[in-house]
Design brief:
By secondary structure, the protein is an alpha/beta fold. Among the domains are: 145 residues, Alpha-D-Glucose-1,6-Bisphosphate, subunit A, domain 3 (Alpha-D-Glucose-1,6-Bisphosphate, Chain A, domain 3, 3-Layer(aba) Sandwich); 108 residues, Alpha-D-phosphohexomutase, C-terminal domain (TATA-Binding Protein). Helix content is 41%, strand content 20%. Strand 4 and strand 5 form a beta hairpin. The two termini are 33 Å apart.
Length: 560
């Protein structure tokens, strides 16, 4: 079909709310083109896109079509007694509706459905998949994207986001389907009444919280002050109940919640970009921390898999720590405390992504810990945990993290877990406080011992069909760079599109530079963006920042 033929077809068959949006597009050809020039891409991250009508939008029909494809995949690849799917959703606009739509499609295809009775974080979905022995899981979320987005993440039976192979197989099933004629849907309430859909019980949620608490690295003789003042914000997402429950049951009672960001709200009225990486999203939390005289602010994103912090420094100012900085602190804390408690395994393993700071490898090496580098995406960290488990070495995994604010210190889930991160950060803060150290002082000690590296991330957005083509051209041109980037000679180029180091093929380029600095460029798998990661090695922050600016200037012309 042409774009206009697709538009007319949807106009004839879509349900009333979607049809009303389509009617509003009449006379606006650019809007119609953007809504129908392609279907939402389905990959290892599932679906993610802007809410609205059309094949390139998140709506009940694109969700139902993806769910039908997933149902056909499960029915084709799993025996009948294993055909069940767990479902969860966050606070975003239409998340609950999309979750029920997906559940109804699965039920109509003879698949047992387990769904949380209220919104729950992504790690709770990963946990439920494994705890309930499901063939797959679906988390309705767009993570930390702006309010106009929603998404649909698919998990395999191991609790990880699906593999490249599984995504390709599911996409093949989706591509066979007519979005209206080929999708089977059951009434949610009716399927709930006859048992095809079941609520996930409180015992599963409680078991998850208990697993998080078991990640403690404090022994019975360790004395810390758990009455320290902490400010927490769930950024209007799913973290409120599990984070507060875990902390309070662990003895942290002096917790204040940012009132404007406490309750779930998919419009995110005080933080248009609900991302703990962004200072604007943290401003209310910092103001609350000042009011409560709290030295620690913790924030989790809407689906509570990413965790960001702000800490009060020696001058009374609040500093946002980057994902790399928090990861370095946690890694050092995990290693030191395991050693002190005699809980370091004989062959310990730490896992990080290739765009995460290489400084972590120096810390790991100092503690006798093996580092495994994986592609961008926490699912690859989860897959390493799975391989260790299959080899009888699950207990060798001690920590995994990625620069995009994802952390995990246990093997009970296979995705990043901000409930775990919040718990471990509070414990780390209390431990260092008992030693007379702030987190900023502890971080300075790391740099003093292992050297300084500044890690930056810049994103370049390319909207629409023209933007998609431009991104492909940019990556092609970057593969032609030779000699130098800025003032630094290129010592090595790693093109992961060829499947380096046994990793799956991925459209990622890494340039190692002569002084130990590096540059990584990759298109985002979930947004119309190219991401540029720079690691600048220098004597101090000022010189590192100057060097990072020079590296970025060296490729800016290719990103225009």
């Amino acid at each position: 079909m042409t774009i206009m033929e697709r538009y007319e077809y949807w106009l004839d068959h879509a349900d009333q709310p979607v049809r009303e949006q389509l009617e509003a597009m009449k006379g606006h050809p650019a809007e119609i083109e953007d809504a129908f020039y392609r279907s939402l891409a389905f990959g290892t991250g599932g679906l993610r896109g802007v809410l609205g009508a059309g094949t390139n939008r998140m709506n009940v029909h694109t969700v139902a079509q993806a769910s039908q494809g997933l149902a056909d995949y499960v029915n084709r690849n799993f025996p009948e007694d294993q055909r069940s799917i767990a479902v969860s959703y966050d606070s975003r606009i239409q998340s609950d509706e999309f979750a029920r739509t997906a559940a109804g499609v699965f039920a109509a295809n003879g698949i047992r459905v387990h769904i949380y009775p209220q919104l729950m974080p992504t790690p709770c979905l990963s946990y439920a998949v494994r705890a309930l022995g499901c063939a797959a899981g679906v988390m309705v979320t767009a993570s930390h994207n702006p309010a106009k987005y929603n998404g649909y993440k698919v998990y395999g039976p191991d609790g990880c986001q699906i593999t490249t192979e599984a995504a390709a197989a599911i996409l093949k099933e989706i591509d066979k389907l007519d979005v209206f004629a080929d999708v089977r849907r059951a009434d949610f309430e009716g399927a709930l009444a006859d048992g095809r859909i079941r609520w996930i019980g409180e015992e599963v949620y409680t078991a998850f919280v208990n697993e998080v608490k078991r990640q403690t690295l404090l022994g019975p003789q360790d004395q810390v002050d758990r009455n320290i003042a902490i400010v927490y914000t769930p950024l209007n997402g799913t973290g409120l109940k599990p984070v507060l429950r875990t902390l309070r049951e662990s003895g942290y009672t002096n917790i204040s919640v940012v009132p404007e960001q406490e309750q779930p709200d998919g419009h995110f009225p005080t933080c248009p970009y609900p991302n703990p990486e962004i200072r604007e999203a943290m401003e209310l939390g910092i103001a609350c921390a000042k009011k409560q005289n709290a030295a620690l602010l913790i924030a989790t994103d809407p689906d509570c898999d990413r965790c960001g912090i702000a800490v009060r420094d020696e001058n009374g100012e609040y500093t946002l720590l980057t994902g790399n900085e928090t990861g370095l602190l946690l890694l050092q804390y995990v290693c030191e405390r395991r050693e002190a408690l005699g809980r370091m395994p004989e062959h310990p393993v730490m896992v990080k992504t290739i765009v995460t700071t290489d400084l972590a490898e120096r810390i790991a090496r100092d503690h006798g810990v093996e580092t495994v580098n994986v592609l961008t995406g926490f699912k690859f960290i989860g897959e390493v945990i799975g391989r260790l488990e299959a080899a009888g070495r699950a207990s060798d995994y001690i920590f995994g993290f990625e620069e995009s604010y994802g952390y995990l210190s246990g093997t009970y889930v296979r995705d990043k877990d901000a409930v775990n991160a919040a718990f471990l950060i509070c414990e780390m803060y209390a431990w260092y406080h008992a030693q007379g150290l702030s987190l900023t002082q502890a971080l300075k000690n790391i740099y003093r011992k292992y050297g300084y590296a500044l890690n930056t991330l810049d994103s370049y957005t390319f909207e629409g069909s023209a933007g998609f083509e431009k991104m492909q051209g940019i990556m092609k041109n970057l593969r032609g760079i030779e000699g130098r980037i800025g003032q630094l000679a290129i010592s090595e180029v790693l093109d992961y599109s060829q499947g380096l180091d046994g990793l799956p093929k991925s459209d990622v380029l890494k340039f190692r530079l002569e002084d130990g600095s590096s540059l990584v460029v990759r298109p985002s798998g979930t947004e119309p963006k190219i991401k540029v990661y720079i690691s600048a090695v220098a004597e101090d922050e000022a010189k590192a920042r100057e060097k990072a600016d020079g590296i970025l200037d060296g490729i800016k012309a290719l990103l225009a």
